[in-house]
């Protein structure tokens, strides 16, 4: 056993925190066990599920994410955009900080990694694109597919030291897909008779349900989301990985 | 093909312009748009005012409530939206005209400020619980990043503290949203309000406490506000003016909107909030007495005023609520004035410590005069607007026959006078060797001057806007009207 | 033999127990740990616990995924799609905030060499 006396090993503060958390845990557990176990009776989700056929999307989660609650998704994309902006801001500052010496350099990637990634890269990109465009038919969608695509580029950056993300291209993709999302929403406001933001203004006959080209505006929006998520997550990975050596300080001021 | 001018523009327009920001950099339109966007939204708000005053504007997004998300622009949320966009115009104009630090004038700051405004607009307008969480995060994340914008150690520390505290608050709020959905099966605020009384008592209590922790942190109420001065101190004063001026106001509105909408009898919750507000006010004002740093002093003063507003709104009577809304507007104006003046003073006088400010008012007479004006307005001296709104609140309490808040508010005003006069005295201390730097950015005084003019105008002629606040208070308090408007008469 | 697990109350009880345990482990970490990254991880754990609770309690045994495939004909007997959609949204938001937080922490460490919340003392009452 260690020589540290018991008094020091079990500190009063820790004990108090354990007791506090335990007490809160018991209180929550009591309330939820008593009232929360029956599941729901009737919820908004059930009503939406019953009406889901009108969107002609075979995946009800997708029609909720992109159509019924598409406004949330727009907000969520915005949060991701904000985080990517913030991270770009922080890591763009490294040159100024000048404390690079403390960083341990990553060792060069080995042959296994390089060959493996060379094989995996096209497959991953293809899988990501598949997941994005089939978002309204099968599990998956813009977020999942976008992250898969970003992962492909992340692996590429790990395996190939010379591979550098084209930041201006990524910025362009971000801007285009993001404003595209808002514009599609505004088109719904302008073109539809009911004039709702993000309304489905493209034809979406129910008979087409299950085909790749169906559900009107839903796959369009999900593709835009896929591009945006892919670009942003890749930019985040890139910012975190590049360690200030490869991409020039951004000289964008007004 | 028409372009319907509906409330969704308050969110869609800043989002669109922020996403397309690389284009504005290329066209050299960044700064004009930073001012132009909130200005356009303010104009839209003014254009919608006649319609709002007759009936609340409801806008369905994709599918009608209670199934989907809707935006609701009623007299109360109109006040907040107009206030938020006005503050956006003022701060944007200050950044544009005032030759401020370059990091506040580049693309990223543009994105963050626009999205902060969009997030606040969304929080105030949305009629859906989960959508509220999303906008809360938009406003939150842009605020975290804005704090860290300067990228030196104090700014990063402020950003980190803000992020940690803010995400904990968001988790508690999300937990409450999840429990509400599991219990009622609804997310639309009105539908939740209709079913809220059927939730078993202990569960209601749990949901209420989780909400209180989540929103209490965000609205900077007493036990949850120890972190606020650090954030205000670490951020640029112009950014801090946005936090104090619009972010907290939006959260306060959300808190009371939820309380008055969900609870058929908001008495108990209101009493709790009044208590928290009173403690917040007294503690913050007392601590502000011994602050040596200008930004911290302003932060504590802001907390004190927020406590006062909470106290007034929590009472739930029409006159105090209208007074509270009026004071909300006044406090935003005053804090814009004070923080922006502080930004000007801080630029000329490197440090924010009280000792370094000796004679600053003599070296910068205009900034000094504006600071004094703001300080007098906070204390509530006639004929400034702070007097009108405080009088309204006090009258409301007196008419209801409740006198302890009156005593506390007067006491707080006394303490406030104590520390503001201390600063004013230092500001005008005779000092010979004041180094007067070449004063650049004279135009920065323009937006501040506009705010100062409004403060005087609202103080001299509060009757111009009385009706707006009374209507706002009515629509905030009238739960049945909202339920009928959203869900139809059958509910 | 394990058919009692198909009882909704039993299954939901297990979910409640598990996710609440996770939540309060996160809360304990948040309050007790002092390393910035550990605090951020605790926040992530708390978030995940809330998602787990939501998905777990909103689905009853026997419901299928709300996707029309494999010969399913109508949208009946399916799980509620709204909690899944909301959780998807919340996960992405949580990821974004966590990413920003970690970047801030890393950057702060680079600048000052500190990674302890107790060391965040640049801004304080004087």
Kindly report how far apart the N and C termini of chain B lie: 36 Å
Total helical segments of chain A: 10
Q: Please report which band the strand proportion of chain A falls in: under 5%, 5-15%, 15-25%, 25-35%, 35-45% or over 45%.
A: under 5%
Please state the overall shape of chain B, judged from the principal axes of the Cα atoms. Answer: globular
Report mean pLDDT of chain B, rounded to a whole number.
88
Number of strands of chain A: 0
Report the portion of residues of chain B in β strands.
Answer: under 5%
Oligomer: heterotrimer
Pair with the biggest interface: A-B, 61 and 67 residues
Short précis:
Chain A has 254 residues and is mainly α.
What does this structure look like?
The complex is a heterotrimer of chains A (254), B (491) and C (126). By secondary structure, chain A is mainly α. Chain A contains ten helices and no strands. The termini of chain A are far apart. Chain B is mainly α. Chain B has a domain at 309-432 and 456-478. Helix content of chain B is 74%, strand content 2%. Chain B contains 21 helices and two strands. In chain B, strand 1 and strand 2 (69-73) form a beta hairpin. Chain B is globular. The two termini of chain B are 36 Å apart. The model of chain B has no long low-confidence stretch (mean pLDDT 88). Chain C has 126 residues and is mostly helical. Chain C has a single domain, classed as Helix Hairpins. The relative contact order of chain C is 0.13. Chains A and B meet through helix 2, helix 3, helix 5 and helix 9 of A and helix 1, helix 2, strand 1, helix 5 and helix 6 of B.
């Amino acid at each position: 056993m260690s020589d540290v006396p018991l008094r020091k090993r079990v500190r009063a503060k820790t004990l108090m925190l354990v007791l506090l958390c335990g007490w809160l845990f018991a209180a929550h557990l009591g309330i939820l066990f008593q009232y929360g176990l029956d599941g729901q009776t009737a919820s908004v989700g059930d009503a939406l599920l019953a009406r889901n056929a009108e969107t002609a999307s075979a995946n009800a989660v997708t029609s909720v994410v992109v159509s019924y609650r598409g406004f949330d998704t727009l907000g969520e994309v915005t949060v991701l955009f904000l985080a990517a902006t913030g991270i770009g801001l922080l890591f763009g500052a490294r040159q100024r900080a000048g404390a690079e010496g403390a960083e341990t350099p990553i060792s060069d990637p080995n042959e296994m990694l390089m060959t493996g990634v060379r094989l995996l890269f096209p497959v991953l990109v293809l899988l990501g694109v598949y997941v994005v465009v089939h978002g309204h038919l099968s599990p998956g969608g813009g977020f999942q597919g976008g992250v898969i695509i970003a992962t492909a580029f992340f692996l590429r950056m790990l395996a190939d030291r010379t591979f550098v993300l084209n930041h201006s291209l990524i910025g362009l993709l971000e801007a285009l897909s993001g404003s595209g999302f808002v514009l599609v929403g505004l088109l719904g406001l302008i073109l539809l008779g009911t004039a709702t933001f993000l309304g489905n203004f493209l034809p979406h006959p129910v008979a087409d349900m299950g085909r790749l080209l169906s559900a009107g505006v839903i796959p369009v929006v999900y593709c835009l989301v896929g591009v945006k998520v892919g670009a942003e997550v890749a930019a985040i990975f890139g910012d975190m990985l590049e360690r200030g050596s490869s991409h020039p300080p951004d000289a964008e001021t007004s | 093909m028409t372009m319907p001018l509906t409330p969704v523009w308050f969110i869609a327009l800043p989002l669109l312009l922020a996403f397309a920001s690389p284009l504005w950099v290329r066209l050299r339109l960044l700064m004009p748009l930073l001012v132009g966007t909130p200005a356009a939204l303010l104009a839209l708000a003014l254009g919608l005012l006649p319609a709002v005053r007759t009936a609340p504007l409801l806008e369905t997004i994709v599918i009608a409530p209670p199934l989907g998300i809707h935006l609701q622009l009623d007299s109360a949320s109109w006040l907040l939206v107009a206030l938020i966009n006005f503050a956006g115009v003022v701060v944007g104009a200050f950044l544009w005209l005032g030759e401020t630090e370059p990091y506040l004038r580049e693309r990223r700051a543009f994105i963050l400020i626009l999205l902060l405004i969009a997030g606040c607009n969304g929080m105030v307008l949305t009629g859906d619980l989960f959508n509220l969480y999303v906008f809360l995060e938009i406003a939150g994340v842009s605020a975290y990043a804005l704090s860290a914008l300067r990228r030196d150690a104090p700014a990063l520390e402020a950003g980190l503290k803000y992020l940690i505290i803010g995400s904990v608050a968001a988790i508690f709020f999300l937990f409450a949203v999840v429990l509400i959905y599991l219990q009622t099966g609804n997310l639309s605020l009105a539908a939740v309000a209709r079913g809220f009384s059927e939730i078993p008592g202990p569960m209601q209590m749990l949901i209420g406490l989780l909400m209180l922790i989540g929103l209490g942190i965000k609205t900077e109420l007493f036990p949850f506000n120890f972190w606020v001065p650090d954030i205000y101190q670490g951020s640029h004063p112009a950014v801090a003016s946005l936090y104090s001026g619009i972010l907290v106001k939006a959260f306060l509105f959300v808190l009371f909107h939820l309380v008055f909408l969900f609870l058929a009898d908001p008495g108990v919750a209101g009493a709790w909030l009044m208590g928290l507000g009173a403690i917040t006010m007294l503690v913050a004002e007392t601590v502000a007495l011994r602050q040596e740093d200008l930004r911290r002093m302003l932060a504590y003063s802001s907390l004190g005023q927020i406590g006062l507003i909470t106290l007034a709104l929590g009472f739930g009577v029409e006159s105090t609520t209208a007074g509270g809304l009026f004071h909300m507007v006044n406090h935003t104006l005053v804090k814009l004035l004070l923080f922006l003046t502080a930004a000007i003073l801080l630029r000329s006088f490197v440090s924010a410590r009280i000792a370094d400010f000796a004679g600053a008012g003599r070296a910068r007479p205009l900034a000094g005069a504006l600071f004094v004006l703001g300080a007098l307005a906070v204390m509530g001296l006639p004929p400034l607007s702070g007097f009108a709104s405080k009088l309204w609140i006090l009258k409301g309490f007196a008419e209801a026959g409740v006198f302890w808040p009156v005593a506390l508010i007067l006491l707080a005003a006394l303490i406030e006078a104590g520390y503001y006069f201390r600063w004013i005295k230092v500001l005008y201390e005779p000092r010979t060797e004041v180094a007067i730097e070449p004063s650049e950015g004279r135009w920065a005084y323009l937006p501040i001057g506009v705010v100062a003019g409004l403060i005087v105008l609202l103080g001299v002629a509060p009757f111009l806007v009385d009706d707006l606040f009374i209507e706002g208070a009515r629509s905030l308090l009238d739960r049945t009207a909202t339920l009928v408007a959203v869900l139809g008469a059958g509910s | 033999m394990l058919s009692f697990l198909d009882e909704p109350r039993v299954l939901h009880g297990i979910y409640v127990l598990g996710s609440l345990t996770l939540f309060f482990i996160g809360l304990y970490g948040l309050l007790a740990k002092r390393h910035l990254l550990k605090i951020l991880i605790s926040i992530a754990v708390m978030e995940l616990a809330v998602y787990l609770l939501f998905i777990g309690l909103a689905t009853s045994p026997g419901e299928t995924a709300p996707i029309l495939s494999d010969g399913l004909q109508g949208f009946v007997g399916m799980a509620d799609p709204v909690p899944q959609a909301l959780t998807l949204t919340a996960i992405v938001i949580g990821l974004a905030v966590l990413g920003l937080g970690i970047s801030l922490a890393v950057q702060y460490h680079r600048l000052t060499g500190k990674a302890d919340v107790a060391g965040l003392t640049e801004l304080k009452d004087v």
